[in-house]
Amino acid sequence: MFAYIVRRLALMLVTLIGISIIIFVLLRVVPGNIVDILFDAAGFVDPTDKANLEKELGLNLPIYQQYLNWIGGLLHGDLGYSYVSEKPALQEILPRIPITARLAALALLFSASIGIPLGVLSAVHQGSKLDYTLRVVSLSGLSLPSFWLGLLILMASVSLFGTMPIYNPNPKTWTEAFAIYAVPAMAVGFRSAALTMRITRSSMLEILRQDYIRTARAKGASETSVNYRHALKNAILPVITVIGIEAAFLIGGLIVTETVFNIPGVARFLVEALRWRDYPIVQNLVMLIAVVVVVANFTVDMLYAAIDPRIRYGD
Amino acid sequence: MRSVHALAAAALLLLPAYDVASAGEPKQGGILRMYHRDSPGSASIHEGATYSINVPFMPIFNNLVMFKQDVAQNSVDSIVPDLAESWAWSSDNKKLTFKLRQGVKWHDGKPFTSADVKCTFDMLMGKSQQKFRQNPRKSWYDQVNEVTVNGDYEASFELKRPQPALLSLLASGYTPVYPCHVSPADMRTKPTGTGPFKFVEFKANESIKLTKNSDYWKKGLPHLDGIEFTIIPNRSTAILGFVSGKFDMTFPTEVSIPLLKEVKAQAPNAVCVVEPINVSTNIIVNSSSPPFDNLDIRRALALALDRKAFIQIMFEGQADIGGTMLPAPGGLWAMPKEMLESIPGYGPDINANREEARKLMQKAGYGPDKRLAVKVATRNIPIYRDPAVILIDQMKNIYIDGELDVVDTAQWFPKVARKDYSLGLNLTGNAVDDPDQSFYENYSCGSERNYTNYCNKEIEKLFDQQSAETDKEKRKKLVWEIDKKLQEDVARPIIFHGRTGTCWNPYVKGITVMVNSSYNGYRYEDVWMDK
């Protein structure tokens, strides 16, 4: 097990180095840098001023040199300066992480706490009206884009309550504080709740047909015990895999949701930084996301072993 | 009778877009909450080329002179003293001297003097040690030889030749006076001014906060305790925020006509005005390479335009047809209607125009069996893309098959600056309703923003002639002549001049939306809230 963990950690490191190179090169392959954007948008380009700014930002250096400077800084905890705000990148990124983390955690919590029980219910009552209703709900969850759902929620909120749950850094009441995260989390988590529900349902249906379930029933175990202690425990592995993958994909949904609900989180900031070709912000943010994804995958793999005693990672 | 009508029209123009006088005695206090359409790249007005910077940061500063904030139409007659108590032209009109106000302090407590004026304009002219990271309006001061000072409270602009427009340029929201003792880098992140509001914070993509300058040199102003901008790039969310009462006011001149109907439906009490913004939607034609190096094809293109159709589809009829200069009544320099309609393509008979256009195309070798295929490049945002689609549809009538080529915003200006296009649809904004700004910037040979490569030495002479002309009426006639010639040469065919809306809650008083520029009316020192 120890050797496996060490191997996985080494692989994670190689993956992150690979990602850092890909991010770095791709960013520079995209036409135009911040100097082009600033100068060409403003007109009256003075080539000397432009060259001076490129030099000031280090954009005149060979690409490998720029990469080494970035990685060297990163290893020393120096993420560089934002080209746009001219503040340290760390100072720009750090306050946004808890906002997005809170939103992502709530979305995943919503996804699991709604998706798993409803998936179980749907499987246990297969073919019933409840099952069909839940399947329709899950299908719509997969079909509705989160930006559309978000806007719909905002419009309904304005129309029904005369207010709307967009971000406010200083909420006046705890309900407002809860709403500004919970409502967008629901909008973004709805899709993954639907997916979780469908996976739970199909996994449960497969398990419920196994011999040992019949044996449990024959031994007189209650339906609750059969469904939750015997079936769900064995059906949960694919669900965990899906939630792990969803955690990685969540950032895509968050970009849209943070924009619609005007949440100043990491995802929206990333898009804005990309628009300005603010390399230090984009590089570091994408690396951060890559780390989250790689760690999430690793955690899911570790969870397999914790949940299913049949799984043992050999040395 | 005609003169009575003209007087009435003039009186209307001098009235603010919203009547301040009827609002009663101003009340003190309150924070004006507004949404901002995007996160400005910096807080430095001099380094920006978008009014996204002027709106939140103009209240921090003063100019030497400014356009009177409660007069909707910017003109030389509406220029009032600001940091300058008075100004005077020399007898040869080559020296403009300002007597400066005494006792004015920067927000950090240091005194304002003529050295600050010299510093600011030396930096704008690229003559100082300290440099702006970018200096988009350097050419505004091409005719200024030098800025000199006489003691602490007098500054003069010495010109190479008379340029009456200079005063208007100095009155623009784009021309604040910066402090000598604060570096350009600091001005980008935490600006210091002498204006009615002090900078508190600018959180990129989140908010901008200003607070009242209690030590403001204009006693009794500002009325508000502060202004807070919440940055909301998503237009639907922003409008919903206004409708739900989270904001007192929309971002100025940002509400499109279709959205305005929604606002009025959901917030019937909101005060909304629709005004021209002095931004023209135009066609950029690369006349240095085939097929548009052929004047006949360019003329055919201009003749094919049905401008009213554009306006009807995009603005439900609420936009204006004109030449380079903003049409009347908002614009000061527009050609008379009869003169405009005499230009090919501006006549009311669209079918006749297009018949003529088809003949020109046939002369150039094209016809129903040999259509001209072109790419129509434009920026990938609706205000560019939508008219480009209509343009493609209209060009089909004259044997031109257009294909939409949408370009990422970041790449749009670099692409047109490289002249890497054949035909494009562009928007051109004017900060000051003055021909000097428009002509030199967009049509002068070698200008960076002359995207079409149009170069006519004869016209250049006329540019200089009108620029130096001190007689307003004579200058106007010259401007009309130039504008007509530019349209006839198909230098950059103007399709229409757009209008947009601004809304605020009825308790917000003292807002005036300018009718011939969307860059100059954001000092907000007179704004107050009746609640």
From TrEMBL, chain A:
It comes from the Bacteria. It is found in: Cell membrane. The keyword Membrane applies. InterPro entries: BPD_transp_1_N, MetI-like, MetI-like_sf. GO terms for cellular component: plasma membrane. It is a multi-pass membrane protein. The chain crosses the membrane at residues 9-30, 103-124, 136-158, 178-199, 235-261, 281-307. PANTHER family: DIPEPTIDE TRANSPORT SYSTEM PERMEASE PROTEIN DPPB-RELATED. This is Peptide ABC transporter permease. It comes from Bradyrhizobium jicamae.
UniProtKB/TrEMBL annotation, chain B:
GO terms for molecular function: peptide transmembrane transporter activity. The keyword Transmembrane helix does not apply. SUPFAM superfamilies: Periplasmic binding protein-like II. The keyword Manganese does not apply. This is Peptide ABC transporter substrate-binding protein. Transmembrane segments: none annotated. Keywords: Signal. Residues 1-23 form the signal peptide. Belongs to the bacterial solute-binding protein 5 family. Residues 79-447 form the Solute-binding protein family domain. GO terms for cellular component: ATP-binding cassette (ABC) transporter complex; outer membrane-bounded periplasmic space. InterPro entries: Peptide/Ni-bd (IPR030678), SBP_5 (IPR039424), SBP_5_dom (IPR000914). Its main location: periplasm. Pfam families: SBP_bac_5 (PF00496). GO terms for biological process: peptide transport. It comes from the Bacteria. It is found in: Periplasm.
